[in-house]
Amino acid sequence: MRLTTCILTLCAFLSVLGQDPYYIAINKSKGLPSNAVYDMYQDTKGFFWFATDEGLCRYDGKNFKSFISPVVTSRSGTNIHEDRYGRIWYTNFDNHVYYIENGEIKSIDQNKTPGNFYKYHLLSNCLFLLQERGVDIYDLSSLNLVKTIEFENIRSTSGDNTGFYVLDDYNDIYRIDTTLRPVRISRTKEMLIASNNGSIFFGNKGQSNASFEECTKKRDIIAWNFNYPEFISNIVFADDQMWVCTKNGVYRKSPNAETGYEQFFKGRYVSFVLEDKDHNIWISTVNEGVLFIPNFHNRFYTFENFTPQIIRIYNNDIYLSGKNNSIQKLDVDQVELSQVYDGKNSHEITCFEMDTLSGHLLVCSDMLHNIFKGSSIMDCNLPVKAVTRVDRSYYAYAASGSCGLHKIDVNAPPSAWDKIYTSHQKANPTSFEISKLLPDVRGKSTVYDPWNQKIYYASNKGLFVASFHGVEEMHYKGNTIQARKMIWYNGSLIILQNSGILLGIDKNKNATEHPLFIGNELIAVNRVIRREQWLFMITNGRGVYVYDLDSKKPSIQLIDEIDRNEDISDIAIWKDKYVLTFSGGIMFMDIHNLKSRKNAPSFVINEITVNDMVLDTIKLSNLSPEQNNVSINYSILSYNTNLGYPLYYRINGGQWKLSYPDSRQLDLISLNPDEYVVDFRLGHTGDKPDKSVKFTIHHPLWELNWTWIAILAFTIGVLLLYMRWRIDRIKNKKT
After folding, report:
1. Segments forming the whole domain that contains residue 719
2. More confident residue, 206 or 470
3. pLDDT, average across residues 397-402
4. Is 722 helix (H, G, I), strand (E, B) or coil?
5. What mean pLDDT value characterizes the chain?
6. The pLDDT of residue 245 is above 80
7. Number of alpha carbons in the 13 Å side-chain half-sphere of residue 404
8. 457 shares its domain with 398
9. More exposed terminus of the chain, fewer Cβ within 10 Å: N or C?
10. How does DSSP classify residue 699?
11. DSSP label at 226?
12. Based on the domain organization, do 396 and 493 belong to the same domain?
């Protein structure tokens, strides 16, 4: 029976606050210097660079490092690039260009800069930089000015992998490439906005009528109909698509698409879009920091005054319980919630189920509510945690205070459970149609095994099984089983123990523990959820793992898609999508578009300090005995934060040791004189190091053999000289 025919849907609708791709916010609360971000860049090592209101900073997925110097005229800037020598360049809004070398901000000698802001450009070994009289071209290897191309007035500039583009006051567009000769390629009365692979884009960036055109390499003009009243802040090409950044979100259009744009993150002032090496999308904003999007196919919905928790799918309809003791039906097409149950109190719904046999909705909160056509027909005044149907006469329940059977209808047909129900009800009489098979316990979970006609109860006093003949406790290796959750599937019982380790009991009553390992690391499971044949294992900070109960093989690991800090409430499967609820809202993950991460995190050594002084690797081979405090600062470049890649280190070929997860520095204090090799390895397996640091601390002179040989030789020499002097003196006396 369809749920919509069984319960009365209230005509109350909740509006959607957002339906954008799921993102992880990187902002001041995470350590970003400012929420105003104007540009982003990923360098060849894998570091991310952000140009913010508070200057340039570098990000490794965990820590930020800001670069500030008195040579900088103002901190706000943009236009980050890396040259062929590994230096990071950017410009502030005063048109002063700076670069990072050996961890320091440095400047170059510039001619007088123009009053308006213009972007510089790096191409091969050339730096193109505007000044009042035109374009200065620098040689990047020497940083010397090699040529100036004069223009009377420049209106705007842009650059790509083919050249540097200049629009002058005569409406002519010139391209300057590595030949250092300007070539006129087009004319326009509009502004030059962007360039990409030899095509240039020019148009009106105004708020009332934004539009632009493309001039291709073949000089063909293509009109891009951007009929939205937005001020265009940037045009970016990422993920093989065009992105139009505006003050009111970002618009995406594939270059191959004929019409229309998709708008995302409405209300946010978007400045830039970037696709990283792992094909994640990053969106910088001028008001809310950076939005990191692991998978653009994943849609995320938030609702006004409703925080979804439990998901149930009935007849392809999605039902959600909220913290406000209500149940809502989600219309995915209209992205709208309609209320189907209101508990009218503040008690949290611990579970709800649709009883397909009776057409009743069972709601567990402060009590067990049995709802039919919108009205409560039978309430059981127990704080029920879990409930499941046994037969036409009974539900099994687990509640705070007892576990047992709840009789659905006193006029129900006879049941094989009548005997045990009656006997325990007489022993523990109540005013409700319940029988406490386990009184005075804190029930946690219950499941029914229809194959063997048994009911399992998990409680604070252990795991119990009820049959027609009575109730007995189950043990594993002679010990009480402390369980949080149980699942029955195809003759097997799956038990989540308090230890976070799964215990499986198969149809032959063989019990086996199934710990979850990532490499050699034991991962505790916090919650388990079964949907069809899929077992979802939710961990604390290590993502969600999916296990195929039919094939008995791990299927897919959902760790690239979710922030490890998200507290996942529930998971369901709906139309080839995983549906997840957590504190922020509800997320739809397309199963067929889930990403598998191919690139492991990178390990990068940032600097090595000896006695708190930074040294280069050349000087490490010649350390004095006093230089015996060595610190190795490093980064683990990982932006998908759930990935389990621990760092191990060893010294001089010894045993691998696990570094502290939150540490990014290895301190070696009071080392003895010796030759040292410190190896680092990411991941649990293998013996080959990813990086090694070698240094030598020399012995003091008095510990060296040649020192004592020299002292002995010197002493013998002095004695010989003395003896010779004495002999000569004696001879002189005799004469």
Report:
1. 710-735
2. 470
3. 92
4. helix
5. 86
6. yes
7. 31
8. yes
9. C
10. P
11. -
12. yes
